[in-house]
Amino acid sequence: MNDLLNIGLIGIGYRGIIHLENCLQRNDVRIIGIAEPNNASISDGKLLFDKYRKEHPKFYSNEDGYKDLLNHHSLDAVIISVPWDYFFDISSYALSFPIYVGIEAASATCLEQLYRLKEIKEKSGAECMLLENTCYHRDVMAVKNMVDKGVFGELVHCRGGYEHDLRPIKFDKEMNFGRGVNGEASWRTKHSITRNGDLYPTHGIGPISSILNINKGNKFTSIVSHASKSVGLKSYVEKNEGKHHPNAKDQYILGDVITSTITTSNAETILLTHNTNLPRPYSLGFRVQGTKGVWIQEHGNHLHLEDYCDNDEWMKNSHRIFNEFDHDDWKNLQYEAAKTARHQMDYFVLREFISSIKAQRKPEFDLYDMLTWLAISPLSEESIRNGSKTLEFPDFSQ
């Protein structure tokens, strides 16, 4: 394979612009085409090409620009960063080409979509990676290293989730959302009106799946989900614009807190939480509990390992353990990662994606991992819709 990879980007908004800048920082990548319907985002993208003194690619701003990009260029890979509503149509089209497809921040609405993506990928021979950056968080990779070396003993239970106050993102300053509104409020908020489940599971379940070796000898076997009442968004609109605002009404069905319990073939349990409608600091709420100790990441790292301490208190020198088990990639490449556009873990996501293309191998987290993680959304919705019914978890690798 040519040392210089030809890559196209579909979507250069909030997340896509980060992937663009990180690609432009590399000498082994050439961006030859971008599909983006928003003129402001195109302008931002052109400024980055000027910043890095790179030749401007072909920009496609029409509605089907992603099709033109894929049909008119010889691509090694494409990176898709689009709102959830466009995820399936664009991803399914891209996977029909025998290239590498990187997908950012996806969400599925039904299992049929996921089985269709599997069918298309297996027919075309494409490779796919969900670009879930939390899998490459430094602490997560260190804990994975500890788990693999037996520091936690036999694993029993894990937790994770997406706990992020998105109220200022779901509404603009006038408490409006939908078409004509800038930012994620133009598309994200309507999912809080039409859906009730874990809408964004990958931030939490990605790292936990890695730690538990899901699809690498271990599998999810069942899921049951529960939803709290939905009052957070209505309360937020009332607080800011009053009870008579048109969006201060009982139209939101997404439970303010969604919890899902997942079982595995190795008999571990997982508790996954989705909490985006209430005031709170950001957290992914990770917990890894084994027979020799526990790690909790909640506004800092809390570690208790019985082989390293004699009592039931949190270790006061846990940073030494994290340094001892720091992943080699972080040790060796942290200064390169520090140059990335926003989050250092994005450097390692792109590095893995590019490395898999060059080696013509499967990415570390492939299409079957993506399908497994995304299935949590429609399964949680179905479970809640049926009175928190326990459901069998599908195996997409079969």
Automatic annotation (TrEMBL):
Glycosyl hydrolase 109 C-terminal domain location is 141-315
Q: Which InterPro entries did the record assign?
A: Gfo/Idh/MocA-like_OxRdtase_N, Gfo/Idh/MocA_oxidrdct_glycsds, Glyco_hydro_109_C, NAD(P)-bd_dom_sf
UniProt key word Nuclease: no
Organism of provenance: Flammeovirga yaeyamensis
Obligatory cofactor(s): NAD(+)
Q: Does the keyword Metal-binding apply?
A: no
What region holds the Gfo/Idh/MocA-like oxidoreductase N-terminal domain? 5-129
Q: What is this protein called?
A: Gfo/Idh/MocA family oxidoreductase
